[in-house]
Design a protein that fits this description.
Blueprint: H1 2-20, H2 24-33, H3 38-62, H4 68-89, H5 94-112, H6 131-143, H7 148-158, H8 163-187, H9 193-213, H10 219-245
Helix pairs in contact: 1-2, 1-9, 2-3, 3-8, 3-9, 4-6, 4-8, 5-7, 5-10, 6-7, 6-8, 7-8
Length: 246
Amino acid sequence: MEWLWLFGIGLIATFIGTLSGSGGLINLPAMILLGLPIHSIISANKFSNMLSSFSSFFVLLRRKELAMKEALKTGPIALVGGILGGLFASSLSDDALQLFAGSLLVAALGLSFLKKKQSSTTLKQVPKRALPFVGVIGWYDGSFGPGQATLQMHLFRQSGLSYLFSIGLTRFNTFLSCTGAVIVYSLSGHLDMTIAIPLAVGSITGAQISVRIADKLSLSQIDWLLRTMTILLIFQVCYSIFTSQF
C-alpha cells in the first residue's frame, strides 16, 4: 500500500512543481508523515526528480519550445552545483539550511512582483548574468531542494524568457543537478530504491500531464501560481524554523 501513496505523492507534487515549481512543498512533508527516514526521503526525491525532469524536458525539446544549445549553456553549471550541494549538505545544520532557503524564497517573491520585460515571450537565449544564479540554485537543489524550481522559474522569467522556454530549462537543469546529487547520495548509501521507484513513476506521470497543459495557462495565472507557491514555501520554512527552536 505504501507504494501507492508514494506514486500519488509523486504525481501530484510533480504536476504542480513542473508548472510553478515548489513540488517539494508537497512531497517532502507527505513522505515524512509516512514515517520514512529523512535521508531516504531526500535521496528518493532527487532520483524521482532526475527522471521526471528529463521526461518533461524531452517533450518540450521535441516540440521545439527551446534549443538544446541553450540548455547545454546552463546544464553543466547545474550539474556541478548539484554535486557540490550533495557533498556540502552533510556539513550544514538544518537551521542554517532553512534560513538560507527562506532568504532565497523571499527574494524570489520580491522578483515576481517586478515588471516583466516586454520581450518576455520572445527571447530565446539565456543572458550570461543568469548563469551564476543557475549554479547557486543547483547547489541548493543538490543539498535540499524544495523551491529550487520556483527560483529557477523566477530567474528565467525575469531574464525575459518565455514561459515554456523557462519550464524546459528548469526541467533540464533540475535533471542534471539531481543527477549530481543522486550520485553522491547513492555512494553514501542513502538511496532506497523501494521508495525511489514508485515515487519516480508517479513523478514522471505528473510531469507528462503538466507539460501538455502548460500552454493553456494565461500569463496572469502563471504569475499568481508562482507567487502562491512561493508564499506557501516561505510559511513552510518559517514554521520549520520556529518549531525547531521550541
